[in-house]
Amino acid sequence: MKEMVNIYVMGKLYSVPAGLTIMNAMEIAGYKHIRGCGCRAGFCGACATIYRIQGDNELHFALACQTAVADNMFIATIPFFPTQKAIYDINEVKPTEQIMMQLYPEIYSCIGCNACTKACPQSLNVMQYIAQAQRGDYATCAEESFDCVACGMCSNRCPAGISHPLVALLARRLNGKYIMPKSEHLEDRANAISNGEYLDALEAIAGKPLSEITELYNHREIEKK
Amino acid sequence: MYSEKMINSMAKVAETRKSRIGADPARFTADEKSKLLAIYHPDFKEEAFSVLEVGANKGGKVPNELHDLLQGKSRMLGKEIDLEDVKYTSDVLVIGGGGSGASCALESFAAGCKVTMVTKLRIGDANTMMAEGGIQAADKENDSPAQHYLDAFGGGHFTNKPELLKMLVGDAPGALQWLNNLGVMFDKDENGVMATTAGGGTSRNRMHACADYSGAEIMRVLRDEVKNDGIEVVEFTSAIEILLDEKGNAAGAVLINMETGELMVAKAKCVVLCTGGAGRIHYQDFPTTNHYGATADGLVMAYRAGAELRDADAIQYHPTGVAFPAQMLGALVTEKVRSLGAMLVNVDGEAFMNPLECRDITSASIIRECSDKNKGIETPLGTAVWLDSPMIDMIHGEGTLLKKLPGMLRMYQKMGIDMREDPILIYPTLHYQNGGVDVNADSMSTLVNNLFVAGEAAGGVHGRNRLMGNSLLDVIVFGRNAGKCAAARAKETEMPSKLSIDHINKFDAAVKASGAEYKAVSPMLLPEYTNIKNKGTL
To answer: Is residue B390 a contact partner of residue B422, using CB atoms and an 8 Å limit?
Structure first.
């Protein structure tokens, strides 16, 4: 006999096998997900979930696909939360301090309560990366927020109405496009190909008879790691 | 958590670890590879495949589960719908909101088209989001598109469609530059030199990455750009059939609202299928790495509309899926773990193969180790081998695993395992549809005009086996290609006047005439994981 635990899905009691993720447990209980389920591997942020263990005051924030059920767990899934995205042209914006002021002015209303950080299922230091965005330090904000899955739990808890994942996304795009060093070798190669270089060699190899190309493949030199 | 046998075996792995650092186990010969595949790869299990009785691939074999969906009962049969009552009209209708759908929508929009994107779940809920390892491009001094071609063509067992593969490798550096210019944060050094590693079957270190969030980083930037452009995105809305005009060209789709069940009509000059893969069909009962909506819907719709499929019987099993603990069964352990030096090790602590063979070969070799060689480690749900992740920090220095594989590390930590300290248990998992709808160099179906297909739903680029890092590249290169070509085609096409579903009725008649029976309603839309014995109707 499998060990069973009691969970409460939106307050309703089900007995499910221990060890399952919250997502699997809800399915075993009979819920067919339409909302609240995406990649099932911790990358897409579709399955944001708040839970509390009966008798315990602490609220927990989790991804349903990455978290095991526990006895007397009260579960609420939050498959959508209204955030506000600023519209911009990535070629027009520049990584200046003013750009956040223009696009996401609400970040300057942060009251420093740190509820966002406590709500992050990825254990990111959300309040800190917002502070970095306020200061225009987009490179650090980008690194700090890199593992964000945009589940929106931070925004859900924010008294200032900040859309943290979107602020972080802007910082990362500014970082990737303007702040990180340019990859000259990539640009050079792409330009060379547009100018027709490399294409003769490509045609030549693609045009070889199967026996010859098989031979080439089986004896090609492999670069050391 | 671990069994006693696991603990004993883990001790043996730790014992041999030091001696394995720097070792480079011999690669299999061409002959050994053929034998491994024929005996151990799931694609060679005859009873798992059946022959199609109807459609463009009549007489060809596909996996049993796909057979039943391709020849499944249309969700339109018996439903009345007024095809004149059009809800969405556009130049280009993009079906699917993953990497190829977003790239396609951006390019069609940039070419001046009115674009509508419909997607079954949310935009970005796609296998692209979960691609951890990286994206290939020949942008280094010792590398070239020709070398990339050779690797991918050999890895695909020389069955790739040359005109598509040439485009994949030739457009790769340009595709990465496009992404970089959109603000994707690739791993690079202080001089801008891209960090590149090897992947299974690559002869040059050309795997570019964004830590182990490569696909997620690319997808969230593309999604943001689609929103910045103001492109119409209709979420939780799935296509269930392609609509044709009186000439038999694609001209729209019937849509269903996933929450309310409402049926709607979308009309367009061109239709692009970017519907992704099929892991959630669970071929041969394998677990899968795929996202929730990967149910081969695009193949089903295209097939009923008259399109031909290619290599639909070539399925990729990723060698390293989570085998333990059970709650994460089948989840992806990125190939980057092996790129960074972790070896595949058996119950006795022996490295039983070179860890950087192609995926099909590696999977077959692991299956052999766990079956005929009897050197696997027992788990509650089967057998497995070790992936010796602690080697990574020993080879590249402490902190490497944390920096290069933060997502992996976190996933295992949540299960109580520190993969820097202990090796992890893995077994092959259903990962990728190598084949798909047969398309030409314009990404258009070879048999249905104005029906474009890009990304995992299209076949030919990878032949019968795809290399790591070529699928993220595929969705960008061919998503963009389909977007540009569909836009060009839309410009010379009149808005269709009459829409038809006659092909659905004809397909239905052909199935009945063939004597085949309906075993499923299709497209599947979502897999069924609920477990209710007595289910009533609400």
So the answer is: yes
